[in-house]
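Table 4 source record.
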Amino acid sequence: MRLVKGFIMKVRVLLPLAVLATILSMPAVLADWSYTEDVTDHSYVHLSGYIDEMKIYQTDRGFHGQKLVVGTKGSGMIDRRQTAYVYDDEVYGDEMYFNEWGTFDHRSVQDGTGESDLRNALCAKNYEMGTVISESYTNMDYLIKDTTIYQNDNVSIYQIASEGRGTARLGARVKDGPCKGVTIMTYGGTYIGDFNIRQEIGSGDELYLTCP
């Protein structure tokens, strides 16, 4: 995607892993929502200017339930849509669904380095299933992404679609349960240059993956 020439994008990622470590240090109390049965969050941003934004979702405190942290910070041209649902269901347990679609464009700062500081990152964990996934994008000229996360006490579904020019890093781990279960899958990848990535991972008793 090509936007207005000469426009400078400056985005610095908020550190999702560091934020997750902070919320995990809270006392662990099993979730039993007394008043709130569900939380719904829809947002859309079209911005030519500055953004400083972070969102944290969790179904429980400490090393329980599902966690997700996403953040973006900086100035430039951004189109971004987010949808999140967080449920506490007496029958099906805790559930979390998240989708972020966005386009970000950068023009290099004339500081002699020739490097872009456009960054974006996300990390999600499901302690009940023993799964985790992360994505980060750095030194980007442009980025188009569509990430969907669905987690509950019985399933984890992660779908990532991203296209851009720069450096992309993806990682995931799937274990057989939250504690001493065998590590079934470990994934890590670094992609530099022009990339178009589709990654889908599912774990649990209900899978709805759509990759051909």
